[in-house]
Amino acid sequence: MTAPPSAREHLARRLVAVGEGERTALRDVYDLTSAKLLGICLRILGDRDEAEDVLQDVYIAVWNKADRFDPARASPITWLATIARNRAIDRLRQRGSRGDSAPVEAAEALPDEAPDALSLLEGRQEAVRLRGCLGELDVRSRDLIASAFFGGRTYDDLARAGAMPLGTVKSIVRRGLQRLKGCLEA
Predict the structure, then answer these.
(1) What does the pLDDT read at residue 174?
(2) Where would you tag: which of 11, 49, 86, 164 has the fewest CB atoms within 10 A of its CB?
(3) Is pTM, for the whole model, over 0.70?
(4) Spatial distance between the Cα atoms of 82 and 26, rounded to a whole number of angstroms
């Protein structure tokens, strides 16, 4: 008996099916990814109505380009997130030309919303080791490291959210990373 496909494999198969013109596969891809892709669009644009409008453009692009998706070259969620990010930045540029928004360069300061490092390690032995070593850290170090490296948050954002000085956050993360490195090398 074979193991069921991973979420990544399932999404990749559905994208390939979209590329073959299967409409129900597009619905599956939408159901599996729309929340994440809307989050990317919303984070870049800052306006829900506009983000939803861009999301519709994203799935039109997916329908038209899915035949070019190659699961051997890219993770399906990375491929989709790139389309969403590019469409949202394009919309930001259009909006910027009207002079009623932040410059497009503001999008570059946003954390990358591609799948986080931990989810890319899922199912691998490294993920088990990493989780075990993270579990050995104190709660504050573990939470800050996970938020920064796996959640894409900046140190400045973490300092504001935790009402801590920026230097304190950096020190906690640095010490935590040193302990994590020692655990992983052991």
Answers:
(1) 92
(2) 49
(3) no
(4) 17
Based on the fold, state whether residues 103 and 121 are members of the same structural domain.
no
Q: Which residue, 185, 44, 164, is CA-closest to 103? A: 44
Cβ 58 vs Cβ 33: under 8 Å: no
Q: pLDDT per residue over 62-118, tens digit each?
A: 999 999 988 888 889 989 999 999 999 999 888 765 545 555 555 555 555 555 544
Contacts of 152 (CB under 8 A, 6+ apart): 111, 112, 113, 116
Tell me the C-alpha distance between 181 and 154, whole Å. 21
Both tokens of 157, joined, read: 């954002």
**Which of the 8 DSSP states describes residue 116?**
P
- Residue corresponding to tokens 């020190």: 171
Q: What is the pLDDT of residues 172-181, one digit of tens each?
A: 989 998 998 8
Indicate which CATH number applies to the domain containing 123: 1.10.10.10
Q: How far is CA 163 from the centre of its chain?
A: 25
Helix 125-136, helix 166-185: angle, nearest 10:
130
Structurally, the chain folds into a number of domains equal to 2
**Of 86, 108, 130, which residue sits at a domain end?**
108
What gap in Å lies between CA 120 and CA 167, rounded to an integer?
30
CB 35 within 8 A of CB 55: no
Question: For the segment 51-63, what is each residue's pLDDT rounded down to a tens digit?
Answer: 999 999 999 999 9
